[in-house]
């Protein structure tokens, strides 16, 4: 059971970036993930959490979908 | 609090359709939705549920993102 949440700032127009991250993860891992949720937020947020653990944050980390993928991988079943 | 789940069949290649439905809903309702999750499934599933209630099912309903939007609307806060 692997549950990913991508919280994104709606007024900032981060929907496209959140969708891009989600697409990368679902393309790569498919049914090895149970779900990927886009969670609406504001105040500039763009974060990725796996099973409740934050693994990427726009305010601290480079925007690189492959980096995010590498950080999700250890949480994913085989 | 409005929580949408789109379950889609991964081996059928329904990711694109699930993403399209999700995009329509988030473009339309933004922060009036709390989250829209893509849930991985198989056996041909493509369904939309709002707060646990199934409001659209590919096996019964026409594929029309606007129809889905109209069925979600009554569940969405103002």
From TrEMBL, chains A, B:
Alphabetic keyword roster: Redox-active center
NCBIfam families assigned to the protein according to its UniProt record, in alphabetical order: CXXU_selWTH (TIGR02174)
Name of the protein described by the UniProt record: SelT/SelW/SelH family protein
């Amino acid at each position: 059971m692997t549950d990913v949440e991508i919280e994104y700032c709606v007024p900032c127009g981060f929907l496209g970036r959140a969708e891009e991250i989600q697409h990368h993860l679902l393309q790569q891992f498919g049914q090895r993930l149970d779900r990927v949720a886009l969670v609406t937020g504001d105040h500039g947020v763009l974060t990725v959490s796996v099973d409740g653990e934050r693994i990427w944050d726009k305010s601290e980390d480079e925007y690189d979908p492959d980096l995010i993928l590498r950080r999700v991988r250890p949480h994913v079943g085989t």
